[in-house]
């Protein structure tokens, strides 16, 4: 606009300066400035040239004005777009401000809820502290009551022990008095002379001078039997032999009573069975006598009864089969159904009960001849891998993968003691006063049955799969996943022998190895179905048996008489070797 104004002003000035035609103005005299400038230049520019120049500038200014007008139009359009965008953003800003107001209101509500929740938490914390203080008082009271109960129990046990000791003392005194009386009667009877007539008086009354002795009547009486046999009169005879034999029977009865007396504290606490047949020399098996597909799936455990004629096998099909060994053959006797996969079987010392460990976190007890389980020993929190009787039929020990070993009172079916063994337990064996456990952490641990602590730890090179204790309880056989068997001398607590063989490998974490009954040989099954027998004294491989097994051998058993061996495998097969 300014340029246009200047152009118009220039045009006006040019029009004024342009002379009209025919108008001749007198030439003014040249001024001194013009004279001076005329001397230096030719002549001043004419108005026509100036007009042309101003016209060119005007055109240029118009072009510039047009371009600027075009730019003004473009800027106006851009301004309109920006104004529309501004209006849109203002609307969005209003919506966001409304949303912010809503969120602030919600925040205020949440803050109120948080304050309420904090108040409730504070109240609950105070109640919790009060309950904890009350629980502490209750625990103190409980401990006090437990101590009182323990003291009462100890005093009761002491009183019972004193009463039992007094009862035993009275019984012993009574027995000694009876023995003294019987000995006096024996002496008197030995000095007496009796005359026997042909027809004895009724009720077997025999007169001895001025005394009358009434003997026991009845068909079983020695005197009546003697009277029946005496058919001819005797001039005189002595009744010393009759009376003496009877008195000897009485004395024997008293002595037998004294031996049988075991119900008191002074007597033996439990009966132990030592009637297991003694094996003088075990026979190394050479060939398979019988082979059966005994189970529906793999067989994990096998055990002979004390009389060597009864056999038990347990498998993953939840079944326990009892077999009679008759004439070199296995004859089915009974089938017991367990609550889970069977991992271990054992007979009690009398052979009348069967104990089995199962994957159902429990052990089960059966009486031979009965189909229903007698007891279920539950309390473990994982698979039970081993269950063994102690030296009596009323006590047992179980080991589990829950890192515990439990002692059981079978008479009352309750856990008498729980031992934390720090690792998975794969097998246990029991001695007189010791429990030995083999573990996944490559250690064999010894536990005293009368104390709570571990008495000894023997490390091995790999996971322990089985343990076998010799009958004299002096040697322990262990099998581990490093494919070795070790004989441990329990007197010196060191490894006496290590057995290896080319081709021998443990087929599983529960592969069982056993001693022969006379502890002369060690027996184990391999992953390829072969049986390996080592001589314990020399350490050399005595025999390698191959037979019907087509899968890894899980367990073996050697009968107490030493004449038969049984092996079971992962292919459902049970093989009797002779």
TrEMBL record:
Coiled-coil parts of chain: 79-182
Principal subcellular localization: cytoplasm
GO cellular component: Atg12-Atg5-Atg16 complex; cytosol; nucleoplasm; phagophore assembly site membrane
InterPro entries recorded: ATG16, Autophagy-rel_prot_16_dom, WD40/YVTN_repeat-like_dom_sf, WD40_PAC1, WD40_repeat_CS, WD40_repeat_dom_sf, WD40_rpt
Keywords on record: Coiled coil, Cytoplasm, Protein transport, Repeat, Transport, WD repeat
Gene3D superfamilies: YVTN repeat-like/Quinoprotein amine dehydrogenase
Region (Disordered): 13-53
WD repeat spans: 292-333, 377-418, 515-544
Entry's localization field: Cytoplasm, Cytosol
GO terms of biological process kind: autophagosome assembly; negative stranded viral RNA replication; protein transport
Domain Autophagy-related protein stretches: 1-168
Matching PANTHER family: AUTOPHAGY PROTEIN 16-LIKE, PROTEIN ATG16L2
Function field: May play a role in regulating epithelial homeostasis in an ATG16L1-dependent manner.
Family designation: Belongs to the WD repeat ATG16 family.
Protein name according to UniProt: Protein Atg16l2
